[in-house]
């Protein structure tokens, strides 16, 4: 069905509605960048693209601090099958100056569990050699993951772009602490579960993450240590009735930041209303956005006025909003997962106390 509406529209219409809270609402914003500087480019062109990030992004990050004084930061999900040491070296100062981080992105097709395990092993080693990635409580490498072409767990209806139907288990055993691929609409890989933080159990069937168990405060922490269960961190997905096609039909709001659809205060309100949160903790909202920031048409927006205007308007809205009192926190993917687990464990205190709760750089 067009735009994969058959996969998710019913869930959107019948979804759980977030309750308003009387106190401040803490909004954690993570920009998960499917970062592909080699897209339609050779190495020299990719290095020029990275030079733009080094030149412009540190000033942007320092100019718009959130509630706790931490400015915007990206999580660069770098495609490990395209590893070039020079590109990762060029990305190091961007992360050092802004607090941005690098995680694992992977495109693969017609693969199997053993092949994927080896690719992940090498990818983790390559990224770690630049000081990227994090460690779990036992000192083992840990990483967040984005699947190329959206086809996580062999979820494409025609079997394209993957081949591994036990991919969640492969990821978990390789050190993955969470998947950040979703939402994928309008791709047919989109799940029926939307606007959720949940644990999905790996099975022998494709798309085993179509459903799962919602992360719930005080109830689900035991699942995160099981090999067959992986945390799924979804971004908001819904309909934008203020941005219509042909003036009639609402457009899909899938949290994608592009030149054609840059972030705005109106979109921010939709993201918050869609209410991605740990159950029983509606005062902490998790807004996972995604973009493809390695290509000029998008990073021109991300490093230019549209993105800066968004940061300004969100800061103003947090201070002057009339419906709820918002506190904005800019986080990396790793920090977002740490905050999710802190809420799950019934931890009390300001969000900035839990940026390094379980997984540390």
Quote the distance from N terminus to C terminus: 42 Å
CATH architecture: Alpha-Beta Barrel
Overall body shape:
globular
Largest sheet, described in full?
9 strands, mixed
Describe this structure in words.
- The protein has 361 residues and is of the alpha/beta class.
- The chain has one domain (2-14, 30-354): 7-stranded beta/alpha barrel, CATH 3.20.110.
- The chain has nine helices and 14 strands.
- Strands 1, 2, 3, 4, 5, 6, 12, 13 and 14 form a nine-stranded mixed sheet that branches. Strands 8-7-9 form a three-stranded antiparallel sheet.
- A hairpin with a 5-residue loop joins strand 4 (134-135) and strand 5 (141-147).
- The protein is globular.
- The protein starts with a helix and ends in a 17-residue tail after the last helix.
- The model has no long low-confidence stretch (mean pLDDT 95).
């Amino acid at each position: 069905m067009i735009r994969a509406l058959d996969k998710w529209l019913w869930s959107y219409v019948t979804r759980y509605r977030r309750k308003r809270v009387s106190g401040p609402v803490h909004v954690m914003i993570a920009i998960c960048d499917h970062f592909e500087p080699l897209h339609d480019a050779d190495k020299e062109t990719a290095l020029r693209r990275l030079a733009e990030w080094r030149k412009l992004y540190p000033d942007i990050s320092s100019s718009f601090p959130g509630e706790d004084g931490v400015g915007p930061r990206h999580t660069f999900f770098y495609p490990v099958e395209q590893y070039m040491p020079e590109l990762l070296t060029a990305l190091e100062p961007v992360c050092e100056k802004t607090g941005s981080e690098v995680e694992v992105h992977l495109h693969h097709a017609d693969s199997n569990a053993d092949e994927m395990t080896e690719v992940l092993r090498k990818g983790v080693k390559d990224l770690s050699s630049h000081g990227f990635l994090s460690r779990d409580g036992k000192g083992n490498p840990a990483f967040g993951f984005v699947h190329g072409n959206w086809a996580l767990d062999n979820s494409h209806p025609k079997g394209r772009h993957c081949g591994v139907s036990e991919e969640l288990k492969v990821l978990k055993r390789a050190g993955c602490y969470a998947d950040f691929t979703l939402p994928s609409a309008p791709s047919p890989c989109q799940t029926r579960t939307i606007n959720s933080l949940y644990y999905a159990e790996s099975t022998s069937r494709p798309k085993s993450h179509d459903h799962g168990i919602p992360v719930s405060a005080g109830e689900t922490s035991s699942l995160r240590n099981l090999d067959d269960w992986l945390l799924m961190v979804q971004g908001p997905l819904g309909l934008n009735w203020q941005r219509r096609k042909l003036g009639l039909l609402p457009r899909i709001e899938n949290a994608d930041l592009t030149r054609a659809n840059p972030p705005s205060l109106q979109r921010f309100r939709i993201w918050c209303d869609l209410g991605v949160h740990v159950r029983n903790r509606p005062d902490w909202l998790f807004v996972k956005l995604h973009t493809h920031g390695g290509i000029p048409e998008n990073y021109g927006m991300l490093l230019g006025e549209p993105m800066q205007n968004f940061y300004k308007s969100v800061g103003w809205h947090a201070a002057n909003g009339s419906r709820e009192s918002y506190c904005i926190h800019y986080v990396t993917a790793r920090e977002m997962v740490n905050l999710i687990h802190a809420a799950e464990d019934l931890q009390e205190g300001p969000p900035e106390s839990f940026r390094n709760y379980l997984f540390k750089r």
